[in-house]
Structures are given as structure tokens and as C-alpha cells.
Amino acid sequence: MISRSKSEALFAEALKYIPGGVNSPVRAFRAVGGQPFFVNKAKGAQVWDVDGNGYIDYVCTWGPAILGHAHPKIIKAVQQAAENGTSFGIPNPFEVTMAKLVCSAVPSVQKVRMCNSGTEACMSAIRLARGFTKRDKIIKFDGCYHGHADSLLVKAGSGALTFGHPDSAGVPAAFTQHTIVVPFNDADAVKAAFEANQGQVAGIIVEPVPGNAGLYLPRPGYLEFLRKITADNGALVIFDEVMTGFRLAWGGAQERFGIKPDLTCFGKIIGGGLPVGAFGGRSDIMDCLAPLGPVYQAGTLSGNPLAMAAGIAALEELSSSRREEAQSKKPKSQSPEPGIDQSLLTSAATENTNAYVRLEALGAQLEAGMKDAARSAKVPVQFNRCGSMFCAYFTDRPVHNLADAMHSDRERFKKFFHGMIEQGIYLAPSQFEAGFISMAHAVEDIEFTIERATSVMKNLR
Length: 461
What we know:
The structure is a single chain. With about 450 residues, the protein is of the alpha/beta class. It is about 35% helix and about 15% strand. It has a 7-stranded mixed sheet, with helices on both faces. Helix 2 packs antiparallel against helix 11 and helix 3 packs parallel to helix 11 (about 305-320). The protein is globular and about 60 Å long. The two termini are about 20 Å apart. The model is unreliable at about 155-165 and about 325-340 (pLDDT under 50).
């Protein structure tokens, strides 16, 4: 049994001064039981708690650490930027560099506005969609989480789902009356929503690969359907790529699936581990923002030089590792379960390969091994994966939406989570969160994880 006496003491102290002892609900371990550990160091693919215990980390600070923790180029960029000041509240050169990087990587984005979080990005994109279309209603999908803005906390995912409160207290009904919620991967429900609200829908906001109720993928043609039905009805489609942006491909999920949304929300990776958010899209839409247009959005720390410097370093490192191959420019398979390319299982060991080829290879290795582990243990598991994002659902049913995810055996997941953490492997402390792989993970880390998962699963029967 791992000793966590220092973490336990810190948590007891935190409970006196911080609601629930944490600054974001899922960190409290309420979904899995027990107490959270406290971290004081992270490097590469590992984190260490205050008691000195090390863990292979598959949370990756909930997605941003795609290069691994404490990447030297990011650390250096932040140190150099800090020497010149931590905040200006005045335009700075980093903002321009970041904007150019985002626009060059994501063809649907002609202009981009920086902000401070994914929540701000989604909230602002929706306000912009409403201002541009002069319509009020927004369609979202149950289980998709777009931050904790009032109008979006309706059948949300992430922490709201984990704690069984899909509708937060403190949100007046009037704030959500213009939010229409439908099941993901259900085209008929979307059609019905447009039919019932003709001329009133400003747009659809969607995680192209939902990662806040675990992880499930769009059925073939579903994202294309959303693109077409919004265009046909004079509405906008907003891709929430806070998680998937610069992770599933250099151009995000929209590159991977070959879809061009009207607006896109970013976060996580573009801050290199520092607080950040952004939203961008067509110039005619973005020019509706103040100071050019009537849609107001602002932020004291927007474009903060430290966050911009960290994000630029992260994106430049990802970009420098990409090979200019014709194949990399082709749209990726749109199949939600493309199967495992066995050639990828050997390419994961190549350190100098294209970042996204390597991440795909590591993901394929983990997927193959975890499926084998579940089969050998005779434990029903649906292992969903897209690139370097994944989720193991403890159910014998395929998972394509929130309703499917809710069939998971959460008690079995709790046992699996604690079994893995005792083996030095940290997974998200909820059945309804995605896992992440970084460039710092080695083939040996994946092999070790599979080996330990095989052992833990055999004790779950």
C-alpha cells in the first residue's frame, strides 16, 4: 500500500479553506472514492506526489501537456518572457505570433481572438453566433461540456456529469430557455430541433469528438450532416476544439475529419500549460466583435505574454516535428472504429517521427494492449480511442453517446482506478473523463501500463 500521509494532511488542511478541498470538482475523487493526492513535481510522462510517489500520468493536466510535463522549450520561453514582465494589458508581439500560428494551422480560422479559458472561448463564440445571426437559440448535445457558463450547464458532461448534477443550482431557468439539447450521433433529433424552431437557431456547438463523458466518436457522416444542416438553415456550426485542437491533428479534429466549421474554440494546448482560451473563424463573423462590431468581449489578461510565449513554444515544437508528407495532408479516416494499423505498433518507438504519427502509434499500442487485457481477464470493456485520446468503458455495449456511456459499471471502474493508482499509473478519477497520451510517453510506459492493467483487471471479475 502506497503511503500518502503528506497528501492526506494537505487535503485535511485544504478542506478548511477551499470548498471541497479542491479548485475543480473532479479532482476531489468523489466519483471513485478515497482522497486525492497532492503533486509537487511533474516531468515528461510522470508526476510525483508530495510523499515522493511517482505515477505514469494519463491525465496530462487534462490535455494541455501533449509534449509532456515541464518541456524544456516551454520552460525557457516562459522564463524569458517573465523577465520582461508578467502582464501588460497592452498589445504585445506574442499575440500576433500566436494568432498567425493558429490561422495558418486551421484553415477555417481567418481571424482569432484570445481569451483566458475554454469556458470563455465557448461563451464568447456563442454570443458571437447569436449576434451575427440575430437569433437566440443554440443546439448542444447531452454529455458535451463547453465550460461552466450558465446557458451551457444543461445536460453537461465533465464534472457536472460525474457528480450527478447535469443542471447546476444557481442557474435560472430563463438562462437556459434558448438552449436546445439533443443526443449526440442522432441526426433525426437535430432535424426535429430545427423543424420545431424554424428561423430561430443561431447555431450548433459541438465537441467533434466528445471527451467530457469519457470519449466517443462521431458516426461516419455525422459531422458532415451537422455542417450541411446548419448551412441550409442559415445557422452556424461551432466546433469546441478546446480538447481536440492541435491534439488529434495539427489542424485539430476538423483536419482529421475534413470538416470546415464557421467558428472554433481553442484552449489547453495553445497555452502550453498556462491558462488560455481562444475562438476564431470566418472574417465576416469575427469582425462583428468589438471594437469593430456590436458583440462585446474583453479580458484583462487576454493575450497574456506568459501564456502566449508558452503556447507558441508548444505549437512550434509540434510543428517542427511534423514531416511534410503528402499522406499527412489527406483527410484521415472518418470511421469511428478504423481498427488498429499493425504498422503503427512498431513506429511508436521512433523518437524523431512526426508528432501525430507517434501519438497515433502510442495510442494504437495502448488500445491493442488494453483490449487484450480485458479479453484475457474476461472483463467487458469498450476501449474507445481517437488519436492520443481514449476511454475504457466498463460495459459490453458499444458507446456512441451519453446514454450508452451511462450503462458503464462505475463500481468496477472505481476498483480499476484504485488498482491502477496503486501500481503507479494515474488515470482520470472518473469513468466519464478522457485519457491522454503525450509525446513524452515511451513504448515502455505503454507496455508497463498494459502489464499492470492485465493484472488489475483479473481482480475485477
